Amino acid sequence: MSLALDKPRQPRRPAARRSNGELYSWLFMRLSGLLLVVLVLGHLFIMNILDGGVHRINFGFVAGRWASPFWQFWDLAMLWLAQIHGGNGVRTVINDYARKDSTRFWLKMLLYVSMVLIVSLGTFVIFTFDPNISN
Amino acid sequence: MTSAGAPERSGTTRGGGTLYRGDLGMWSWVAHRITGVLTFFFLFTHVLDTALVRVSPNAYDAVIETYKNPVVNLFEVGLVGAVLYHALNGIRVMLVDFWEKGAKYQRVMLWTVLAVWVVVMIPGFYFMMERTISELVGGH
Predict the structure, then answer these.
(1) Which chain A residues are Cβ-neighbours of B51 within 8 angstroms?
(2) Cβ count within 10 A of residue B21
(3) Structural domain harbouring A102
(4) A6 inside domain
(5) Residue of B46, B44, B43, B58 whose CA lies nearest to A59
(6) N or C: which end of chain B has fewer CB within 10 A?
(7) Structure pTM?
(8) Predicted ipTM?
């Protein structure tokens, strides 16, 4: 009698149902993180430590900075990268700790709505900033 | 590093295997999560307060005054400390993932992260709190 082994290998996973989303999310966290190290630490150094720190910040200070396209682009890039990086991190935290599917769903909806709100508002403010706005 | 020279993954799980739970590496991950979530919540607030530049200079200046309050000023030191840890530990995570010797040196790198954090935060604290403290103890 020969020993009949039916399919001795592991069955292949159905390829169609797999996606690389989590891989791209993992990679994005590292790439955006690298950029954010420069953007955010630079921002914190300028705003909080350099030249009197937070005590010199007012409307005129912001107007002076955003007169330069360099700082406009810096802040825009920081806004988008930090929101997506942070939002993706909080998404992972929600996935880890939410116990009920409905809780997980609604927490993530709240997260996504807040991300869209903050990115849109911040982008709008950077692009439409008016240094001569009335008091 | 413990057991010099021994491969990290040697031994059985119960014997001399690697320990993650409760070990320093786990706490570095916990701290990474906490600092990340706190920073994300602050970012939400910070974009809203900055958006006031679109309302009026007075509205913006009024809310920025709260950032100059001594207690809030101390929170800013906390924020910088949280972001700095998250950034330094994030670099460590990338080195563990992409550098061939990263996993071997992860513990040394964590101590390096903490050492750099302390070295940066001491002058950081000084420059961020200098004016607040001198005003509190009755300067000008």
Answers:
(1) 121-122, 125
(2) 6
(3) 24-128
(4) no
(5) B58
(6) C
(7) 0.84
(8) 0.84
Does some domain include residue A7?
no
Instruction: Name every residue whose Cβ is closer than 8 Å to that of residue B57 and which is 6 or more positions away in sequence.
Output: A58, A59, A60, A133, A135
For tokens 């439409």, name the residue.
A128
List, for residues A108-130, the tens digit of each pLDDT value.
Answer: 999 999 999 999 999 999 999 99
Residue B50: its chain A contacts at CB < 8 A? 62, 122, 125
Segment B59-76, tens digit of pLDDT = 999 999 999 999 999 999
pLDDT at B3 over 50: no
- Going along chain B from its start, the domains and CATH numbers come out as 24-136 (1.20.1300.10)
Q: What's the CA gap between B92 and B105, in Å, rounded? A: 10
**Set of chain A residues whose Cβ sits within 8 Å of the Cβ of B73:** 54
Q: What pLDDT score was predicted for residue A16?
A: 64
Q: How many Å lie between the alpha carbon of A1 and the closest alpha carbon of chain B? A: 38
Specify if A2 maps to a domain: no
Q: What pLDDT is stored for residue A19 in this prediction? A: 87
- Cβ contact, residue pair A122, B128, below 8 Å: no
Question: Among partner residues A58, A82, A87, which is closest to B64 by beta-carbon distance?
Answer: A58
Task: Kindly report, residue by residue over A39-50, the tens digit of the pLDDT.
Answer: 999 999 999 998
Q: Is residue A106 part of a domain?
A: yes
Q: Please say if the pLDDT value at position B19 is more than 80.
A: no
Q: Is A118 close to B36, i.e. CB distance below 8 A?
A: no
From CA B82, how far away is CA A78, in angstroms rounded?
Answer: 17
pLDDT at A8 exceeding the cut of 80: no
Chain A within 8 Å of B100 (Cβ-Cβ)? Answer: no
- Nearest CA-CA partner of B131 in B60, B66, B68, B62: B68
